[in-house]
Amino acid sequence: MKIISIEVFAAQLPLLRPFIVAYDVYHELPSIIVKITTDTGITGYGEGMPDSHVTGETFSSTYEMLVKDIGPLLIGENPFDIEKIHRIMSSAVYHAPTAKAAIDIACYDAMGKATSQPVYNLLGGKSHETLTVPYVVSILAPEEMARQAAQAVQDGYTSIKIKVGDNPLVDVKRIQAVREAIGADIQLRVDANQGWCDAATAMRVLKQVEDCQMEWIEQPVLADDLIGLAQVRQKTFIPVMVDEGLHGDKEMREIIDRQAADFINIKLMKCGGLYPACKLVAQAEMAGMRCQVGSMVESSVATAAGAHLSIAKEMIFSNEMVGPLMFSQDFGKLNYQKNELILSDRPGLGVEVDEEVVRRFSVHSAVIE
Fold this sequence. Notes:
This protein is of the alpha/beta class. Helices cover 40% and strands 23% of the residues. The chain has 13 helices and 15 strands. The strands form three sheets. It has an eight-stranded parallel sheet. Helix 9 links the parallel strand 9 and strand 10. Helix 5 runs parallel beside helix 6. It is globular. The mean pLDDT is 97. It holds the Pfam family MR_MLE_C.
């Protein structure tokens, strides 16, 4: 089986409501959809969701790199030769994980369809039967965040994740208000998205909310400050999760060496797709660290890929596959039932991609043959 063409679509997906994190406000999100076609007639879909604040890739750079630098090198390659494909991509460009993830996911989709297997069977089979997702609350006034969190609990969610990081003083009030609103039995995850910058600021906040029973604090310091992250972990009993500070093997080795985190947040857009993500899970397992699969707020395509990884690996205890719940339009459909994502057992990703929707929201497209 050989790749004979690659189509690349650069689209903007509209959100139901603004998504507000410490470093930006989003009203729509960029999505790069990749479709590979093989000489056997099998197609595979992948997605890249670039975030310039996290990987340094932009909407336009990811599209251009796929069209001009990566895609042409993969014509004639076998999607099953996934290690070779990653070697070709890495030889062409350094880093650029989002562009590589789009190709990687499309190859796994094609592999699953060629073997009549869901992607999770290509990754080790089912380790979990269900995937429970949290409700994510953007940065807002404390009372509004508390109201949204309480409503989510009424709607059946058992875990609430809140975004903080734009103002440490207000963040204390946000965390306290949400915990009071949801009660003691609901999981509360807090993500600062680097917003507290340094260990001293992070500890000032955490000392004031120690009684809020947080499941963990995610990325309380700047991404490159693994020393500061380790200091936070040493000084608080609240578990620490690394997100933006972990991309691939290089950071993983340093996190393990410095004992900088309790948990790691793996995102396909940060590490380059499912193949490198599996290597991160293996390293985490050797270090005794549990994993979460996070999301850049992706459409159903990349979300499905993350879900397949989540359900296949025992070390992955948490996932945040919530992207499709946040868009007013999507390229496909996943099955959410209250706070659970029910993953399809259809071959490949199990997502029926609506190309009409892809083309409607695309601002650029190209065919590589």
